[in-house]
Design goal:
Shape: globular
Distance between the termini: 67 Å
Helix content: 40-55%
Number of helices: 25
Largest sheet: 6 strands, mixed
Bound molecules: 6-O-phosphono-beta-D-fructofuranose
Oligomer: single chain
Mean pLDDT: 94
Number of strands: 13
Length: 576
Protein backbone atom coordinates (compact mmCIF):
# COMPACT_ATOMS: atom_id res chain seq x y z
CA UNK A 1 0.00 0.00 0.00
CA UNK A 2 1.15 3.57 -0.53
CA UNK A 3 2.78 5.16 2.47
CA UNK A 4 0.50 6.67 5.12
CA UNK A 5 1.74 10.24 4.63
CA UNK A 6 -0.22 10.32 1.38
CA UNK A 7 -3.51 10.74 3.24
CA UNK A 8 -6.29 12.90 1.82
CA UNK A 9 -5.70 15.42 4.59
CA UNK A 10 -2.10 15.74 3.48
CA UNK A 11 -3.27 16.18 -0.10
CA UNK A 12 -5.99 18.67 0.69
CA UNK A 13 -8.12 17.21 -2.09
CA UNK A 14 -11.72 16.10 -2.28
CA UNK A 15 -13.92 14.85 -5.09
CA UNK A 16 -15.20 18.20 -6.33
CA UNK A 17 -12.76 20.78 -4.95
CA UNK A 18 -9.30 19.80 -6.10
CA UNK A 19 -6.38 21.68 -4.72
CA UNK A 20 -5.25 24.48 -7.05
CA UNK A 21 -1.94 22.82 -7.68
CA UNK A 22 -0.12 25.90 -8.97
CA UNK A 23 -0.69 27.61 -5.62
CA UNK A 24 1.15 24.95 -3.63
CA UNK A 25 4.71 25.13 -2.30
CA UNK A 26 5.43 21.89 -4.15
CA UNK A 27 4.66 23.59 -7.46
CA UNK A 28 6.88 26.54 -6.55
CA UNK A 29 9.69 24.14 -5.65
CA UNK A 30 9.40 22.48 -9.04
CA UNK A 31 9.43 25.84 -10.81
CA UNK A 32 12.67 26.65 -8.98
CA UNK A 33 14.12 23.24 -9.85
CA UNK A 34 13.25 23.83 -13.48
CA UNK A 35 15.04 27.19 -13.48
CA UNK A 36 18.10 25.54 -11.93
CA UNK A 37 18.12 22.77 -14.52
CA UNK A 38 17.71 25.14 -17.45
CA UNK A 39 21.34 24.96 -18.55
CA UNK A 40 21.94 21.30 -17.71
CA UNK A 41 22.69 18.76 -20.37
CA UNK A 42 22.15 15.04 -20.30
CA UNK A 43 25.84 14.62 -21.08
CA UNK A 44 26.71 16.48 -17.87
CA UNK A 45 24.05 14.75 -15.79
CA UNK A 46 25.31 11.33 -16.85
CA UNK A 47 28.94 12.31 -16.39
CA UNK A 48 28.20 13.55 -12.88
CA UNK A 49 26.55 10.34 -11.74
CA UNK A 50 27.82 6.97 -12.97
CA UNK A 51 24.85 5.26 -11.29
CA UNK A 52 22.26 7.48 -12.97
CA UNK A 53 20.71 4.70 -15.08
CA UNK A 54 20.35 2.40 -12.07
CA UNK A 55 18.95 5.17 -9.93
CA UNK A 56 16.47 6.51 -12.46
CA UNK A 57 14.84 3.26 -13.44
CA UNK A 58 12.09 1.04 -12.05
CA UNK A 59 10.45 -2.28 -12.85
CA UNK A 60 7.00 -3.81 -12.61
CA UNK A 61 6.72 -7.56 -13.19
CA UNK A 62 9.31 -7.61 -15.96
CA UNK A 63 8.41 -4.26 -17.55
CA UNK A 64 11.53 -2.15 -17.10
CA UNK A 65 11.34 1.64 -17.26
CA UNK A 66 14.56 3.58 -17.79
CA UNK A 67 13.77 7.25 -17.30
CA UNK A 68 17.37 8.38 -16.86
CA UNK A 69 17.47 10.04 -20.31
CA UNK A 70 15.16 12.78 -19.07
CA UNK A 71 16.00 16.35 -18.11
CA UNK A 72 15.69 15.76 -14.41
CA UNK A 73 17.58 14.53 -11.36
CA UNK A 74 16.67 12.32 -8.44
CA UNK A 75 15.82 15.53 -6.58
CA UNK A 76 13.37 16.50 -9.30
CA UNK A 77 11.71 13.13 -8.93
CA UNK A 78 11.37 13.68 -5.17
CA UNK A 79 9.74 17.05 -5.80
CA UNK A 80 7.39 15.57 -8.40
CA UNK A 81 6.41 12.81 -5.98
CA UNK A 82 5.71 15.46 -3.34
CA UNK A 83 3.46 17.20 -5.85
CA UNK A 84 1.52 13.97 -6.41
CA UNK A 85 1.14 13.60 -2.67
CA UNK A 86 -0.07 17.18 -2.36
CA UNK A 87 -2.67 16.49 -5.08
CA UNK A 88 -4.00 13.58 -2.98
CA UNK A 89 -3.04 10.94 -5.54
CA UNK A 90 -3.06 8.04 -3.05
CA UNK A 91 -6.52 9.02 -1.87
CA UNK A 92 -7.78 9.29 -5.44
CA UNK A 93 -6.33 5.88 -6.33
CA UNK A 94 -8.19 4.32 -3.43
CA UNK A 95 -11.34 6.19 -4.38
CA UNK A 96 -11.16 4.75 -7.89
CA UNK A 97 -10.37 1.18 -6.80
CA UNK A 98 -13.17 1.17 -4.22
CA UNK A 99 -15.89 2.36 -6.56
CA UNK A 100 -16.38 5.94 -5.41
CA UNK A 101 -18.18 8.06 -7.98
CA UNK A 102 -15.12 9.99 -9.05
CA UNK A 103 -16.61 10.77 -12.47
CA UNK A 104 -18.51 13.60 -10.85
CA UNK A 105 -19.98 15.23 -13.96
CA UNK A 106 -21.65 11.97 -14.97
CA UNK A 107 -22.18 10.74 -11.37
CA UNK A 108 -20.44 7.46 -12.09
CA UNK A 109 -17.88 5.21 -10.52
CA UNK A 110 -14.76 4.58 -12.64
CA UNK A 111 -14.11 0.88 -12.36
CA UNK A 112 -12.23 -0.47 -15.33
CA UNK A 113 -10.04 -2.09 -12.67
CA UNK A 114 -13.05 -4.25 -11.71
CA UNK A 115 -13.03 -5.73 -15.23
CA UNK A 116 -9.87 -7.63 -14.34
CA UNK A 117 -10.50 -8.19 -10.64
CA UNK A 118 -10.12 -11.83 -9.64
CA UNK A 119 -13.18 -13.96 -9.01
CA UNK A 120 -14.02 -13.67 -5.35
CA UNK A 121 -13.00 -10.02 -5.05
CA UNK A 122 -15.56 -7.51 -3.89
CA UNK A 123 -15.94 -4.02 -5.32
CA UNK A 124 -19.15 -2.24 -4.40
CA UNK A 125 -21.07 0.26 -6.47
CA UNK A 126 -24.14 1.57 -4.61
CA UNK A 127 -23.77 -1.37 -2.23
CA UNK A 128 -23.71 -3.96 -5.04
CA UNK A 129 -20.66 -6.16 -5.65
CA UNK A 130 -19.90 -5.81 -9.37
CA UNK A 131 -17.19 -8.49 -9.60
CA UNK A 132 -19.58 -11.47 -9.96
CA UNK A 133 -21.36 -9.55 -12.76
CA UNK A 134 -18.03 -9.11 -14.55
CA UNK A 135 -17.26 -12.82 -14.30
CA UNK A 136 -20.73 -13.85 -15.38
CA UNK A 137 -20.29 -11.90 -18.63
CA UNK A 138 -16.73 -13.19 -19.07
CA UNK A 139 -17.97 -16.78 -18.72
CA UNK A 140 -20.61 -16.18 -21.41
CA UNK A 141 -18.03 -14.51 -23.64
CA UNK A 142 -15.58 -17.40 -23.26
CA UNK A 143 -18.31 -19.94 -24.09
CA UNK A 144 -19.42 -17.93 -27.11
CA UNK A 145 -15.86 -17.50 -28.38
CA UNK A 146 -15.27 -21.25 -28.04
CA UNK A 147 -18.42 -21.97 -30.03
CA UNK A 148 -17.42 -19.64 -32.85
CA UNK A 149 -13.82 -20.86 -32.91
CA UNK A 150 -14.80 -24.54 -32.89
CA UNK A 151 -17.52 -24.14 -35.51
CA UNK A 152 -20.39 -25.03 -33.17
CA UNK A 153 -21.80 -21.54 -33.77
CA UNK A 154 -22.52 -21.40 -37.48
CA UNK A 155 -24.07 -19.00 -39.94
CA UNK A 156 -27.74 -19.37 -40.89
CA UNK A 157 -26.95 -21.91 -43.62
CA UNK A 158 -24.79 -24.03 -41.33
CA UNK A 159 -21.45 -22.74 -42.62
CA UNK A 160 -18.57 -22.01 -40.25
CA UNK A 161 -17.81 -18.38 -39.42
CA UNK A 162 -14.70 -17.32 -41.33
CA UNK A 163 -14.73 -13.58 -40.68
CA UNK A 164 -15.72 -11.59 -37.61
CA UNK A 165 -16.46 -7.92 -38.30
CA UNK A 166 -16.52 -5.61 -35.31
CA UNK A 167 -18.60 -2.50 -35.94
CA UNK A 168 -17.88 0.25 -33.41
CA UNK A 169 -16.03 3.53 -33.07
CA UNK A 170 -13.78 5.25 -30.52
CA UNK A 171 -13.46 3.07 -27.44
CA UNK A 172 -15.67 0.45 -29.10
CA UNK A 173 -13.14 0.03 -31.90
CA UNK A 174 -9.65 1.27 -31.07
CA UNK A 175 -8.97 -1.11 -28.18
CA UNK A 176 -9.95 -4.41 -29.81
CA UNK A 177 -8.49 -3.28 -33.16
CA UNK A 178 -5.17 -2.35 -31.54
CA UNK A 179 -5.00 -5.52 -29.44
CA UNK A 180 -6.00 -7.88 -32.26
CA UNK A 181 -3.10 -6.50 -34.27
CA UNK A 182 -0.76 -6.53 -31.26
CA UNK A 183 -1.55 -10.18 -30.58
CA UNK A 184 -1.77 -11.37 -34.17
CA UNK A 185 0.74 -14.18 -33.49
CA UNK A 186 -1.74 -15.52 -30.92
CA UNK A 187 -4.75 -15.43 -33.25
CA UNK A 188 -6.49 -18.32 -34.93
CA UNK A 189 -5.57 -17.52 -38.51
CA UNK A 190 -8.49 -19.51 -39.88
CA UNK A 191 -10.87 -16.77 -38.68
CA UNK A 192 -10.17 -13.26 -39.87
CA UNK A 193 -11.10 -10.24 -37.79
CA UNK A 194 -11.99 -6.92 -39.40
CA UNK A 195 -12.96 -3.59 -37.91
CA UNK A 196 -15.38 -1.04 -39.28
CA UNK A 197 -15.62 2.35 -37.61
CA UNK A 198 -15.88 5.18 -40.11
CA UNK A 199 -19.32 6.41 -41.20
CA UNK A 200 -17.72 6.86 -44.62
CA UNK A 201 -19.44 4.07 -46.56
CA UNK A 202 -16.06 3.08 -47.97
CA UNK A 203 -15.16 1.47 -44.66
CA UNK A 204 -18.04 -1.01 -44.49
CA UNK A 205 -17.79 -1.63 -48.24
CA UNK A 206 -14.10 -2.47 -48.08
CA UNK A 207 -14.68 -4.68 -45.05
CA UNK A 208 -17.48 -6.70 -46.65
CA UNK A 209 -17.26 -6.61 -50.44
CA UNK A 210 -15.15 -9.76 -50.68
CA UNK A 211 -16.94 -11.68 -47.92
CA UNK A 212 -19.63 -14.32 -48.02
CA UNK A 213 -22.46 -13.25 -45.69
CA UNK A 214 -23.09 -16.91 -44.86
CA UNK A 215 -19.65 -17.07 -43.18
CA UNK A 216 -19.61 -13.62 -41.57
CA UNK A 217 -20.42 -12.67 -37.98
CA UNK A 218 -20.96 -9.02 -37.07
CA UNK A 219 -20.35 -7.77 -33.55
CA UNK A 220 -22.08 -4.44 -33.11
CA UNK A 221 -20.17 -2.76 -30.28
CA UNK A 222 -21.49 0.42 -28.75
CA UNK A 223 -21.73 1.39 -25.12
CA UNK A 224 -24.74 3.62 -25.79
CA UNK A 225 -26.03 1.90 -28.94
CA UNK A 226 -26.95 5.35 -30.21
CA UNK A 227 -23.70 6.37 -31.90
CA UNK A 228 -24.49 7.59 -35.40
CA UNK A 229 -21.51 5.99 -37.13
CA UNK A 230 -21.99 2.59 -35.55
CA UNK A 231 -25.74 2.40 -36.03
CA UNK A 232 -25.44 3.49 -39.68
CA UNK A 233 -22.78 0.85 -40.38
CA UNK A 234 -24.71 -1.81 -38.46
CA UNK A 235 -27.87 -1.08 -40.44
CA UNK A 236 -25.93 -1.34 -43.70
CA UNK A 237 -24.44 -4.65 -42.57
CA UNK A 238 -27.85 -5.92 -41.52
CA UNK A 239 -29.35 -5.04 -44.92
CA UNK A 240 -26.43 -6.85 -46.60
CA UNK A 241 -27.05 -10.03 -44.59
CA UNK A 242 -30.82 -9.89 -44.97
CA UNK A 243 -30.58 -9.35 -48.74
CA UNK A 244 -28.46 -12.49 -49.06
CA UNK A 245 -29.89 -14.78 -46.39
CA UNK A 246 -33.25 -13.39 -45.27
CA UNK A 247 -34.50 -11.74 -42.11
CA UNK A 248 -34.21 -14.88 -39.96
CA UNK A 249 -30.45 -14.98 -40.55
CA UNK A 250 -29.91 -11.93 -38.33
CA UNK A 251 -29.88 -14.10 -35.19
CA UNK A 252 -26.90 -16.13 -36.47
CA UNK A 253 -24.95 -13.25 -37.94
CA UNK A 254 -25.30 -10.44 -35.40
CA UNK A 255 -24.42 -10.15 -31.76
CA UNK A 256 -24.22 -6.94 -29.75
CA UNK A 257 -21.97 -5.54 -27.06
CA UNK A 258 -23.59 -2.71 -25.16
CA UNK A 259 -24.90 -1.29 -21.90
CA UNK A 260 -28.23 -0.49 -23.57
CA UNK A 261 -30.40 -3.61 -23.86
CA UNK A 262 -33.46 -1.68 -24.98
CA UNK A 263 -31.71 -0.14 -27.97
CA UNK A 264 -30.13 -3.50 -28.88
CA UNK A 265 -33.59 -5.09 -28.96
CA UNK A 266 -34.99 -2.17 -30.97
CA UNK A 267 -32.22 -2.67 -33.51
CA UNK A 268 -33.36 -6.25 -33.96
CA UNK A 269 -30.69 -8.18 -32.11
CA UNK A 270 -31.99 -10.69 -29.59
CA UNK A 271 -30.80 -9.60 -26.10
CA UNK A 272 -29.85 -13.27 -25.60
CA UNK A 273 -27.09 -12.49 -28.11
CA UNK A 274 -25.96 -9.40 -26.26
CA UNK A 275 -22.92 -9.13 -24.00
CA UNK A 276 -23.30 -6.38 -21.46
CA UNK A 277 -21.14 -4.00 -19.56
CA UNK A 278 -21.86 -1.12 -17.25
CA UNK A 279 -21.95 2.67 -17.02
CA UNK A 280 -18.89 2.60 -14.75
CA UNK A 281 -16.75 1.46 -17.68
CA UNK A 282 -15.67 4.44 -19.79
CA UNK A 283 -15.58 3.80 -23.55
CA UNK A 284 -11.83 4.38 -23.78
CA UNK A 285 -11.28 2.11 -20.75
CA UNK A 286 -13.46 -0.71 -22.07
CA UNK A 287 -11.29 -2.96 -24.21
CA UNK A 288 -11.09 -5.61 -21.48
CA UNK A 289 -14.88 -5.62 -21.04
CA UNK A 290 -17.26 -7.32 -23.50
CA UNK A 291 -15.99 -4.71 -25.99
CA UNK A 292 -13.04 -7.10 -26.35
CA UNK A 293 -15.28 -9.86 -27.75
CA UNK A 294 -13.79 -9.70 -31.27
CA UNK A 295 -10.31 -9.90 -29.78
CA UNK A 296 -11.36 -12.82 -27.58
CA UNK A 297 -12.66 -14.77 -30.58
CA UNK A 298 -9.38 -14.07 -32.34
CA UNK A 299 -7.01 -15.10 -29.54
CA UNK A 300 -9.16 -17.52 -27.53
CA UNK A 301 -10.07 -17.59 -23.83
CA UNK A 302 -6.68 -18.67 -22.44
CA UNK A 303 -4.85 -15.77 -24.05
CA UNK A 304 -7.61 -13.36 -23.03
CA UNK A 305 -7.21 -14.55 -19.43
CA UNK A 306 -3.47 -13.86 -19.69
CA UNK A 307 -4.24 -10.38 -20.99
CA UNK A 308 -6.49 -9.71 -18.00
CA UNK A 309 -3.80 -11.02 -15.68
CA UNK A 310 -1.37 -8.49 -17.16
CA UNK A 311 -3.83 -5.67 -16.55
CA UNK A 312 -4.32 -6.91 -12.99
CA UNK A 313 -0.58 -7.08 -12.30
CA UNK A 314 -0.16 -3.43 -13.33
CA UNK A 315 -3.25 -2.44 -11.30
CA UNK A 316 -1.70 -3.98 -8.21
CA UNK A 317 1.64 -2.35 -8.91
CA UNK A 318 -0.06 1.04 -9.30
CA UNK A 319 -2.12 0.65 -6.14
CA UNK A 320 0.60 -0.64 -3.86
CA UNK A 321 4.04 0.55 -5.01
CA UNK A 322 5.59 3.70 -3.54
CA UNK A 323 5.33 6.51 -6.01
CA UNK A 324 9.09 6.80 -6.57
CA UNK A 325 9.11 3.23 -7.96
CA UNK A 326 5.63 3.24 -9.45
CA UNK A 327 5.74 3.06 -13.26
CA UNK A 328 2.44 4.77 -14.10
CA UNK A 329 3.10 7.47 -11.52
CA UNK A 330 6.60 8.08 -12.83
CA UNK A 331 5.45 8.28 -16.45
CA UNK A 332 2.67 10.64 -15.40
CA UNK A 333 4.99 12.89 -13.41
CA UNK A 334 7.63 13.04 -16.12
CA UNK A 335 5.01 13.90 -18.72
CA UNK A 336 3.66 16.63 -16.46
CA UNK A 337 7.17 17.96 -15.91
CA UNK A 338 7.57 18.57 -19.65
CA UNK A 339 4.02 19.75 -20.24
CA UNK A 340 3.83 22.26 -17.41
CA UNK A 341 7.39 23.35 -16.66
CA UNK A 342 8.99 23.10 -20.11
CA UNK A 343 5.77 24.03 -21.93
CA UNK A 344 6.11 21.13 -24.40
CA UNK A 345 2.94 20.39 -26.26
CA UNK A 346 3.27 16.94 -27.73
CA UNK A 347 4.29 13.50 -26.58
CA UNK A 348 5.36 10.71 -28.93
CA UNK A 349 4.88 7.00 -28.35
CA UNK A 350 7.24 4.99 -30.53
CA UNK A 351 6.84 1.23 -30.36
CA UNK A 352 9.62 -0.88 -31.83
CA UNK A 353 7.20 -3.62 -32.71
CA UNK A 354 5.36 -4.01 -35.96
CA UNK A 355 2.46 -5.51 -34.06
CA UNK A 356 2.01 -2.37 -31.95
CA UNK A 357 1.25 -0.25 -35.01
CA UNK A 358 -2.14 0.76 -33.63
CA UNK A 359 -0.94 1.42 -30.08
CA UNK A 360 -0.31 5.17 -30.50
CA UNK A 361 -3.78 5.65 -32.04
CA UNK A 362 -5.29 3.78 -29.12
CA UNK A 363 -3.39 5.98 -26.68
CA UNK A 364 -4.56 9.10 -28.47
CA UNK A 365 -8.13 8.46 -27.38
CA UNK A 366 -7.13 7.20 -23.96
CA UNK A 367 -5.03 10.26 -23.19
CA UNK A 368 -6.52 13.09 -25.23
CA UNK A 369 -10.19 12.29 -24.57
CA UNK A 370 -9.38 11.89 -20.88
CA UNK A 371 -7.11 14.84 -20.22
CA UNK A 372 -8.00 17.26 -23.00
CA UNK A 373 -9.82 19.47 -20.50
CA UNK A 374 -9.64 23.12 -19.51
CA UNK A 375 -11.74 23.31 -16.37
CA UNK A 376 -11.04 21.50 -13.12
CA UNK A 377 -13.45 19.26 -11.27
CA UNK A 378 -15.00 22.29 -9.60
CA UNK A 379 -15.62 23.90 -12.99
CA UNK A 380 -12.90 26.50 -12.54
CA UNK A 381 -10.49 27.27 -15.41
CA UNK A 382 -7.37 25.21 -14.94
CA UNK A 383 -4.19 27.06 -14.06
CA UNK A 384 -1.87 24.54 -15.74
CA UNK A 385 -1.45 23.13 -19.20
CA UNK A 386 -3.28 19.78 -19.34
CA UNK A 387 -3.01 16.79 -21.69
CA UNK A 388 -0.45 16.86 -24.52
CA UNK A 389 -1.03 15.97 -28.14
CA UNK A 390 -0.16 12.26 -28.25
CA UNK A 391 1.12 10.79 -31.48
CA UNK A 392 3.45 8.19 -32.90
CA UNK A 393 3.98 5.25 -35.22
CA UNK A 394 6.21 2.18 -35.09
CA UNK A 395 9.79 3.22 -34.56
CA UNK A 396 11.91 2.33 -37.53
CA UNK A 397 9.33 3.61 -39.99
CA UNK A 398 9.28 6.91 -38.11
CA UNK A 399 13.08 7.06 -38.32
CA UNK A 400 12.73 7.47 -42.08
CA UNK A 401 10.03 10.09 -41.80
CA UNK A 402 9.79 12.50 -38.86
CA UNK A 403 12.78 11.60 -36.67
CA UNK A 404 14.76 14.29 -38.50
CA UNK A 405 12.66 16.84 -36.62
CA UNK A 406 13.04 14.93 -33.36
CA UNK A 407 16.82 15.08 -33.69
CA UNK A 408 17.44 18.50 -35.22
CA UNK A 409 14.16 20.42 -35.24
CA UNK A 410 13.33 23.40 -33.06
CA UNK A 411 10.55 21.54 -31.23
CA UNK A 412 11.42 19.23 -28.38
CA UNK A 413 9.24 16.13 -28.34
CA UNK A 414 9.46 13.91 -25.26
CA UNK A 415 9.00 10.32 -26.36
CA UNK A 416 8.35 6.85 -24.98
CA UNK A 417 10.33 4.13 -26.73
CA UNK A 418 8.76 0.68 -26.28
CA UNK A 419 10.75 -2.42 -27.16
CA UNK A 420 10.96 -6.14 -26.41
CA UNK A 421 13.85 -8.42 -25.59
CA UNK A 422 12.48 -11.38 -27.54
CA UNK A 423 11.07 -11.23 -31.07
CA UNK A 424 7.39 -12.05 -31.54
CA UNK A 425 6.58 -15.73 -31.59
CA UNK A 426 5.39 -15.57 -35.20
CA UNK A 427 9.00 -14.85 -36.12
CA UNK A 428 10.56 -17.42 -33.83
CA UNK A 429 8.02 -20.21 -34.26
CA UNK A 430 6.17 -19.25 -37.42
CA UNK A 431 3.00 -20.75 -35.96
CA UNK A 432 3.45 -24.15 -37.60
CA UNK A 433 0.21 -25.25 -35.91
CA UNK A 434 -1.60 -22.88 -38.25
CA UNK A 435 0.23 -23.94 -41.35
CA UNK A 436 2.97 -21.32 -41.11
CA UNK A 437 6.48 -22.09 -42.29
CA UNK A 438 7.78 -22.71 -38.77
CA UNK A 439 10.30 -19.99 -38.17
CA UNK A 440 11.48 -16.89 -39.94
CA UNK A 441 12.98 -17.21 -43.38
CA UNK A 442 16.27 -15.30 -43.23
CA UNK A 443 19.53 -15.75 -45.07
CA UNK A 444 22.28 -17.19 -42.86
CA UNK A 445 24.62 -14.25 -43.54
CA UNK A 446 22.18 -11.64 -42.25
CA UNK A 447 21.94 -10.67 -38.58
CA UNK A 448 18.75 -11.69 -36.86
CA UNK A 449 16.18 -9.02 -37.81
CA UNK A 450 15.18 -8.56 -34.20
CA UNK A 451 18.73 -7.51 -33.44
CA UNK A 452 18.61 -5.01 -36.29
CA UNK A 453 15.37 -3.64 -34.91
CA UNK A 454 16.63 -3.37 -31.35
CA UNK A 455 19.96 -1.88 -32.36
CA UNK A 456 17.96 0.97 -33.84
CA UNK A 457 15.85 1.15 -30.69
CA UNK A 458 18.88 1.64 -28.44
CA UNK A 459 20.71 3.88 -30.91
CA UNK A 460 17.88 6.36 -31.22
CA UNK A 461 17.51 7.19 -27.53
CA UNK A 462 21.30 7.43 -27.24
CA UNK A 463 21.47 9.84 -30.19
CA UNK A 464 18.54 11.90 -28.96
CA UNK A 465 20.01 12.24 -25.48
CA UNK A 466 23.67 12.87 -26.23
CA UNK A 467 23.73 14.17 -29.79
CA UNK A 468 27.00 15.04 -31.47
CA UNK A 469 28.96 18.24 -30.89
CA UNK A 470 30.60 20.40 -33.54
CA UNK A 471 34.02 19.30 -32.27
CA UNK A 472 33.08 15.64 -32.64
CA UNK A 473 31.73 16.22 -36.13
CA UNK A 474 34.83 18.18 -37.17
CA UNK A 475 37.07 15.47 -35.74
CA UNK A 476 35.46 13.04 -38.18
CA UNK A 477 36.89 15.10 -41.03
CA UNK A 478 33.62 16.73 -42.07
CA UNK A 479 34.09 19.87 -44.19
CA UNK A 480 33.72 23.01 -42.02
CA UNK A 481 30.72 24.35 -43.96
CA UNK A 482 28.87 21.11 -43.33
CA UNK A 483 29.65 20.88 -39.63
CA UNK A 484 26.64 22.94 -38.41
CA UNK A 485 24.31 20.78 -40.48
CA UNK A 486 25.66 17.63 -38.91
CA UNK A 487 25.58 18.72 -35.30
CA UNK A 488 23.01 17.07 -33.06
CA UNK A 489 22.16 19.19 -30.03
CA UNK A 490 21.08 16.19 -27.95
CA UNK A 491 19.16 16.76 -24.71
CA UNK A 492 16.04 15.32 -26.30
CA UNK A 493 14.26 13.44 -23.53
CA UNK A 494 13.02 9.87 -23.76
CA UNK A 495 11.64 7.12 -21.59
CA UNK A 496 12.56 3.56 -22.50
CA UNK A 497 10.15 0.74 -21.74
CA UNK A 498 11.77 -2.65 -22.22
CA UNK A 499 9.68 -5.79 -21.68
CA UNK A 500 10.53 -9.47 -22.15
CA UNK A 501 8.21 -10.09 -25.14
CA UNK A 502 4.94 -8.88 -26.60
CA UNK A 503 2.60 -11.42 -25.05
CA UNK A 504 -1.04 -11.07 -23.97
CA UNK A 505 0.19 -10.55 -20.39
CA UNK A 506 2.63 -7.80 -21.40
CA UNK A 507 0.03 -6.06 -23.53
CA UNK A 508 -2.33 -5.98 -20.56
CA UNK A 509 0.44 -4.48 -18.44
CA UNK A 510 1.21 -1.81 -21.04
CA UNK A 511 -2.40 -0.74 -21.48
CA UNK A 512 -2.98 -0.50 -17.73
CA UNK A 513 0.31 1.38 -17.41
CA UNK A 514 -0.96 4.12 -19.68
CA UNK A 515 -4.47 4.11 -18.17
CA UNK A 516 -2.95 4.83 -14.78
CA UNK A 517 -0.46 7.33 -16.15
CA UNK A 518 -3.41 9.32 -17.52
CA UNK A 519 -5.15 9.00 -14.14
CA UNK A 520 -2.06 10.29 -12.33
CA UNK A 521 -1.83 13.37 -14.53
CA UNK A 522 -5.56 14.08 -14.42
CA UNK A 523 -5.47 13.89 -10.64
CA UNK A 524 -2.65 16.41 -10.32
CA UNK A 525 -4.28 18.73 -12.83
CA UNK A 526 -7.50 18.43 -10.80
CA UNK A 527 -9.60 17.57 -13.84
CA UNK A 528 -12.19 14.88 -14.48
CA UNK A 529 -10.43 12.43 -16.80
CA UNK A 530 -13.59 10.38 -17.27
CA UNK A 531 -16.08 12.57 -19.09
CA UNK A 532 -15.90 13.73 -22.73
CA UNK A 533 -18.27 16.66 -23.15
CA UNK A 534 -15.94 18.03 -25.80
CA UNK A 535 -17.18 15.54 -28.38
CA UNK A 536 -20.82 16.56 -28.00
CA UNK A 537 -21.07 19.86 -29.85
CA UNK A 538 -19.92 18.46 -33.19
CA UNK A 539 -22.39 15.58 -32.86
CA UNK A 540 -25.30 17.99 -32.22
CA UNK A 541 -24.38 20.25 -35.11
CA UNK A 542 -23.96 17.28 -37.48
CA UNK A 543 -27.43 16.08 -36.50
CA UNK A 544 -28.76 19.49 -37.54
CA UNK A 545 -26.91 19.48 -40.87
CA UNK A 546 -27.93 15.97 -42.04
CA UNK A 547 -31.49 17.06 -43.00
CA UNK A 548 -30.08 20.17 -44.65
CA UNK A 549 -27.91 18.00 -46.89
CA UNK A 550 -30.67 15.47 -47.54
CA UNK A 551 -33.54 17.88 -48.18
CA UNK A 552 -35.04 17.86 -51.70
CA UNK A 553 -35.95 21.55 -51.39
CA UNK A 554 -33.46 24.34 -50.83
CA UNK A 555 -33.24 24.50 -47.02
CA UNK A 556 -33.19 27.79 -45.12
CA UNK A 557 -29.66 27.79 -43.68
CA UNK A 558 -29.06 29.58 -40.43
CA UNK A 559 -25.33 28.94 -39.91
CA UNK A 560 -22.48 31.40 -40.24
CA UNK A 561 -21.69 32.55 -43.78
CA UNK A 562 -18.81 30.11 -44.18
CA UNK A 563 -20.81 27.03 -43.19
CA UNK A 564 -23.84 28.17 -45.22
CA UNK A 565 -21.72 28.60 -48.33
CA UNK A 566 -19.98 25.25 -47.91
CA UNK A 567 -23.32 23.47 -47.54
CA UNK A 568 -24.71 25.24 -50.63
CA UNK A 569 -21.65 24.27 -52.64
CA UNK A 570 -21.90 20.65 -51.52
CA UNK A 571 -25.62 20.51 -52.35
CA UNK A 572 -25.03 22.02 -55.78
CA UNK A 573 -22.41 19.44 -56.67
CA UNK A 574 -23.64 16.37 -54.85
CA UNK A 575 -25.40 13.62 -56.75
CA UNK A 576 -25.94 15.86 -59.66
O1 LIG B 1 -17.62 10.37 -29.25
C1 LIG B 1 -16.84 9.90 -28.22
C2 LIG B 1 -17.37 8.62 -27.67
O2 LIG B 1 -18.42 8.84 -26.81
C3 LIG B 1 -16.25 7.85 -27.00
O3 LIG B 1 -16.03 8.25 -25.72
C4 LIG B 1 -16.70 6.45 -27.17
O4 LIG B 1 -15.65 5.56 -26.98
C5 LIG B 1 -17.21 6.48 -28.58
O5 LIG B 1 -17.83 7.75 -28.70
C6 LIG B 1 -18.17 5.39 -28.96
O6 LIG B 1 -19.32 5.39 -28.15
P1 LIG B 1 -20.27 4.15 -28.07
O7 LIG B 1 -19.50 2.99 -27.57
O8 LIG B 1 -21.38 4.54 -27.15
O9 LIG B 1 -20.80 3.87 -29.46
Amino acid sequence: MPSPDRSPAGGGDDATQPVVITQTPEWAALAAAHAELAGASLRDLFAADPKRAQQLSAEADGVYLDYSKNLLTADTVRLLVALAERAGLAHRIEAMFTGEKINTTEHRAVLHVALRAPEGASILVDGHNVVPDVHEVLTRMYAFADRVRSGVWTGATGRHIRTVVNIGIGGSDLGPAMATEALRPYTDRSIETRFVSNVDGADIWEATHDLDPAETLFIVSSKTFTTLETIANARTARAWVVAALGEDAVANHFVAVSTNERKVAEFGIDPANMFGFWDWVGGRYSMDSAIGLSLLIAIGPDNFRDLLAGFRAMDEHFRTTPFERNLPVLLGLIGLWYRDFFGLQTHAVLPYSHYLSRFPAYLQQLDMESNGKSVDRAGRPVTTATGPVVWGTPGTNGQHAYYQLLHQGTTIVPADFIGFIEPPRSVTAGQPENGGPGGAIAPPDQPDQHLLLMANFFAQTEALAFGRTAAEVAAEGVAPDLVPHRVFAGNRPTNTLLAPALTPFTLGQLIALYEHKVFTQGTIWGINSFDQWGVELGKVLAGRIVPELASGDEPALGHDSSTNELIRRFRAGHGG
